[in-house]
Amino acid sequence: MARKDSLLNLRSILVKRRDALRSALAGDLSLLKELRSESPGDVVDAAYDSTQDEISSQLAEVESRELASIENALERMKAGKYGQCEVCGGRIPMARLHALPYATMCIDCKRMLERSGSGGSGDQGFSEEEAGEETVSRELEL
Ligand SMILES: [Zn+2]
Question: Measured in angstroms, how far is the CA atom of residue 76 from the centroid of ligand 1?
């Protein structure tokens, strides 16, 4: 598949995932359940499995953090910067983007950052806070 087609494909995955997360945060888990079969083994699934009955605040936190990452990725697509490493400016390999569609760093830079101890636990390197919980809660009120 051409890189451009792959990007379009990833974009639709991200949009679907974003919508599912938005619904889940609004209390509707049906979309997220649907997606589980398509993308097994991510952190949301793990959290979901462990707290089937009780949708914990921890899960909500993971979801809103992932949602922010996805929105950031979609913004980057719009700006034509998607798939470009934020640190070195190099191309993030397609395989990595498929594994982690909202990756903002190539694996080398990610590792380097982790080794230097300033990378935190997430993969997102964005600085704009506005894409985070604030946006989500505002939308939930609608
Ligand atoms: Zn890099």
Answer: 16
Domain span at residue 133 reads 3-140
Q: How many angstroms is it from 27 CA to the middle of ligand 1? A: 37
Q: What is the pLDDT along the chain (142 residues), one digit of tens a residue?
A: 688 899 999 999 999 999 999 998 888 877 877 776 655 555 555 555 554 545 567 778 888 999 999 999 999 999 999 999 999 999 999 999 999 999 999 999 999 999 987 544 444 444 333 333 334 434 444 4
pTM listed for this prediction = 0.64
> What CATH number does residue 135 fall under?
1.20.120.910
Q: Give 69-126 as a DSSP string.
A: HHHHHHHHHHTT-TTB-TTT-PBPPHHHHHHSTT--S-HHHHHHHHHHT-S-SSS---
